[in-house]
């Protein structure tokens, strides 16, 4: 079974998620990986891009942080990590509103609770790459946490690690 057969086969439980174009496009760059690993990396990269794009602008710092995270996570060469992040960014720009929940749902199915918390930490790292986690970025992370079924307490624990970059805390009077 080829990688595209794996993602396009019909399954009544998750037909819509298997038709997810954003994940498939990124996976095409990861064909040398086992299908489940490629799908995991693709969804991970897409979700990083989702948070970076939540303020409708992806900064150079956010892009570099996403590339670093994907390169380290997947042990990819730099040029391949750059390409995967560029695809994830463009897919978020073009299709984000319609595919965000589908990708989150797929990632939840294929990941462990700890992997979801680790991704949450990476989402905060991307949002804070420019030393400023805007409220809309934080709101997007909160949505993803809810889609993953992460408790409010777990979210706050991860958020606390990035408190020095939270916009809402930077604006407090001294």
Question: Layout of SSEs?
Answer:
Elements: H1 3-8, H2 15-18, H3 21-27, H4 35-52, H5 60-74, H6 78-110, H7 113-127, H8 135-148, H9 152-160, H10 167-170
Order of helices and strands: HHHHHHHHHH
Helix content: over 70%
Work out the count of structural domains.
1
> If you compute it from the alpha carbons, what radius of gyration comes out, rounded to the nearest whole angstrom?
16 Å
Task: Give the class-level CATH name.
Answer: Mainly Alpha
Might you state the CATH topology name? TerB-like
Secondary structural class: mainly alpha
CATH architecture: Orthogonal Bundle
Strand content: under 5%
Average pLDDT number = 84
CATH superfamily annotation: TerB-like
Q: What does it look like?
A:
The chain starts with a helix and ends with a helix. The radius of gyration is 16 Å and the shape is globular. It has helices spanning 3-8, 15-18, 21-27, 35-52, 60-74, 78-110, 113-127, 135-148, 152-160, 167-170. The chain has a single domain (17-170), classed as TerB-like, CATH 1.10.3680.10. The chain is an all-alpha fold and 174 residues long. The relative contact order is 0.13.
């Amino acid at each position: 079974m080829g990688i595209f057969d794996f993602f396009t086969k019909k399954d009544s439980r998750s037909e819509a998620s298997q038709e997810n174009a954003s994940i498939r496009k990124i996976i095409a760059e990861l064909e040398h990986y086992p299908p489940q690993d490629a799908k995991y990396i693709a969804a991970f990269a897409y979700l990083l891009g989702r948070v970076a794009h939540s303020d409708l602008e992806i900064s150079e710092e956010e892009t570099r942080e996403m590339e670093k995270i994907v390169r380290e996570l997947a042990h990819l060469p730099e040029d391949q990590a750059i390409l995967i992040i560029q695809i994830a960014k463009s897919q978020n720009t073009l299709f984000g509103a319609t595919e965000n929940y589908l990708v989150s749902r797929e990632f939840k199915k294929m990941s462990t609770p700890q992997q979801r918390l680790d991704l949450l930490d990476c989402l905060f790292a991307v949002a804070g790459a420019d030393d400023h986690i805007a409220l809309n970025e934080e709101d997007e992370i909160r949505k993803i946490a809810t889609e993953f079924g992460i408790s409010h307490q777990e979210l706050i624990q991860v958020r606390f690690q990035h408190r020095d970059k939270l916009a809402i805390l930077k604006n407090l009077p001294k």
